[in-house]
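User: Teach me something about this protein's shape.
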Amino acid sequence: MNYDAIIIGAGHNGLVTACYLARAGLKVVVVEKNDWVGGAAVSRSLHPGFTYSNCSYVSSLFRPEIMRDLELPKYGLQVLPYEGGAVMTRDGGYLAIFRDHEANRREFSRHSPRDAEAYDPYSRDVFRHCRFIRPLLMRTPPDPARFRPRDLAELAWLGKKTFDLSESQIYEMIRFWTMSISDFLDEYFENPVVKAYLAVSAIIGTALGPMSPGSAYVLLHHYMGDVDGNVGAWGYARGGMGSITAALSASLTDSGGEIRVGKGVEKVLVQNGQAVGVALDDGEEIRAKRVISNMDVKRTFLKHVDEAELPASFVKQVRNFKIRGSSGKLNIALDAAPKFTALPEGSPMYKGDLHFTDSIERMERAYDDWKAGHFSRDPFQDVMIPTMIDPTMAPPGKHFMSCFVQYAPPKIEGQDWTDADRDAFGQTCINQIDDYAPGFKDLVLHAEIRTPRELEAEVGLTEGNIFQGELTFDQLLFNRPVPGYAQYRSPIKDLWICGSSTHPGGGVMGAPGRNAAAEILRDIRVPTDMSDAYAVL
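Assistant: First, the predicted structure itself:
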């Protein structure tokens, strides 16, 4: 059977692209190597009665325009905003975190009156950067080296948007995109715990430390989402992150699309410089007018396309694209709720993200271990207990804990991870939690430990990088993934890419998938609103 489009990979971006193409009337099939859909946005039951969000674990970045277009709430998607959170300190204290700005400001004042006064100008400046970036998320970046009318128009739009800023704001924006989060926060705050809390979003998922130039932008990337219109808010997808991709799958099949699981792609078929289908690892061939890869750019072009079909310069650029694993994940089934020594029992802080790293210097030392080729001996952990808000994920009285961990390198001192390395990494993380919640180890019923090895083997994330490529200034906008190919196309006609290696980058956002679909529909001149104009937030 011939299709209009084959999408490789049933992760959220691949499903978003497939949904838009199917709704435009194209005959679409998604092929997925695993026996389940979701990619990194998946819910799985790995211990009786428990549901794990076993890769991505919180929702904020997913674009509300996509939720509306694809009617995802109709298919069961519900995001539950969470309240609270805390940074626990070694001396038994804590910094409480609240969704309410004024409550946060009062809590900062308890630690530093000066930092409380700085919180307003800090928030104002960060969200000014957000307002500049957010409209770019759902637009195809222009190619500054070409002089096509659409590229010139997009450059003019970007130039006008830039010059709407004051001279000092332009200078500050350029500085912000290239500076470290440590230096940025030093310009506002003095208390180490306050700075540690605010630096968290700058290191999540990236192979940078808080003192690395460029880490400030990563913070901005995490601030650009919203829940129910509250910019910067985060929440849990009810039933786990797989609820997002389950809703996308239902929307796709309702639109006439097809999903085939357990069908790994061996090779993209190319004839006379044009993609014509895929060969599966079971020997089957599927033909289509176009192929869209949701895999990262390295996996797509270095593993599943014959190098002879590609320009040597393009292959070199793809090889040089930075995809560096830096993260691990623990998913833990608990017999009861843990009790953290520093936190009052029943506190709303249990319902948000809990951190133990109480200074930027401590974060940087964790990064030093990564640079030395070892997992962090005193890691940073973003610990959450979703069942405090969503009881559907565990049996009554039990709890599910998600631990996102920095830093875990793709190799241990240059060697592949072993099972012993993995177990030692997991035990290090559990020991750290037990230091702050004595007796925690006795509550553990089951723990899934995921290093970059597991993230690459099971999810297809090269080196375990959750963003499919570093979010550094040299790999953003028209440089993502490589210069000249930032508009979701490739050197091979009708071979497209739609994953997080493309603009605007990683996270469970959906924007790369939606933008790729818009370009495909524009290319084949399918009449649809989204092929003619981009939403501006």
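Now, about its shape. Residues 109-232 form one domain. Residues 113-133 form the longest helix (21 residues). If you'd like, I can walk through any region in more detail.
User: That's plenty for now, thanks!
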